[in-house]
Amino acid sequence: MLDLMTFKTLTTLLCLGSFTTLAHADESRFEKATTDRRTVKSFDESASLTVRLEYLDRSKILRIDKGEDKAPEVWLGKRRLPTDILWLRPTMINSFCLTIDGKKIHVPERFWNDITGLHLEKMIVNKKTSSDNDKIELWRYSTQQCAGPVITRSANKGTVLISWKRPEE
Questions:
Q1: Which helix (H) or strand (E) holds 150?
Q2: Would 72 be classed as within a structural domain?
Q3: 95 occurs within a structural domain
Q4: What is the distance between the alpha carbons of residues 103 and 164, in angstroms, rounded to a whole number?
Q5: What is the tally of structural domains in the chain?
Q6: Domain that holds residue 47
């Protein structure tokens, strides 16, 4: 019969071994890669968002200082850019398409065309998903591990929430 100390030690080792195995299983099952376009769907797949990022060449961005007490102007050719492009990742959203229940929802450009510093990654699935648990794991990985937006529907389907963390957050 095992004493209490041996039992605790074996249980701890077993748990650590299980967590290590699960961590390696996730790594082999999914991978991620940087992309400039991605479509994300809500868990119930009733809403989707397709976004495209524009990667700007930092060497072509012109900064014009307006004085000590004023924010600088930032330009790319004839296009004025937000000043936060100077210290964030030089990216901007250049297309944003929201679809809910199969209907395209027009979101005016003023709500998304000046957002900078975002990053997109796509998910590569190495093994076929077949069960509902596989699909849940796939959705969790795509929303928690891959950089990009997450779209969520409310329980009564009346509201859509879009969230997107910047890499520095």
A1: strand 150-153
A2: yes
A3: yes
A4: 22
A5: 1
A6: 28-163
